[in-house]
Design goal:
It is built from 4 helices and no strands. By secondary structure, the protein is mainly alpha-helical.
C-alpha cells in the first residue's frame, strides 16, 4: 500500500470517529458541571445550616437540648448524608466534627464552651468549603 492510500484510510477513520470523541468529551464535561452544581447547592445549604446552628448555640434558648435536637441535629444529619456523596475529604472531616460538637452540646451542662466549639468548627467548615471551591 502506498502512503496516499494510508492517508485516505486515516482520513476516513478520523471522520468516522471524531463525532464519537466529541460526544464523549461533551458528556464528560456535562457530568462535571452537574456535579459542581450539586456540590454548590449542598455547600450553600450547609453554610446556612451551620450559621443557624452556631447562632442557636450562642443564643441559649430556654431549653437548648430540645431546640438543638429539633433543628440542628436532624437537619445537619440530612445535609451530612448529602455531602458524603459530593464533598471533599476535608469538608467531610469538618462536618463530622461539627456533628460531634452538636451532639455534645445536646448532652452538655457547659453550654457556653460547647457553643464556642460549634462556632469554631463552623469556621473550619467554611474554610474547608472555600479551599475546595478554589481548586
Amino acid at each position: 500500500m502506498n502512503p496516499i492510500m494510508w492517508m485516505g484510510i486515516a482520513g476516513i477513520i478520523g471522520t468516522a470517529v471524531s463525532p464519537w470523541i466529541a460526544e464523549r468529551l461533551r458528556s464528560k464535561n456535562a457530568r462535571k458541571d452537574q456535579l459542581m452544581k450539586l456540590r454548590l447547592a449542598i455547600y450553600a445549604e450547609l453554610l446556612r445550616a451551620t450559621a443557624r446552628l452556631a447562632a442557636q448555640a450562642h443564643s441559649g434558648p430556654p431549653n437548648p437540648a430540645a431546640e438543638m435536637e429539633k433543628i440542628g441535629t436532624e437537619e445537619l444529619d440530612g445535609l451530612l448524608s448529602q455531602a458524603k456523596v459530593v464533598a471533599g475529604p476535608d469538608v467531610l472531616r469538618q462536618l463530622e466534627e461539627l456533628s460531634q460538637h452538636t451532639e455534645s452540646f445536646n448532652r452538655s451542662a457547659d453550654l457556653a464552651a460547647m457553643a464556642g466549639s460549634i462556632a469554631a468548627t463552623r469556621g473550619k467548615v467554611q474554610d474547608a468549603i472555600r479551599s475546595e471551591m478554589m481548586r
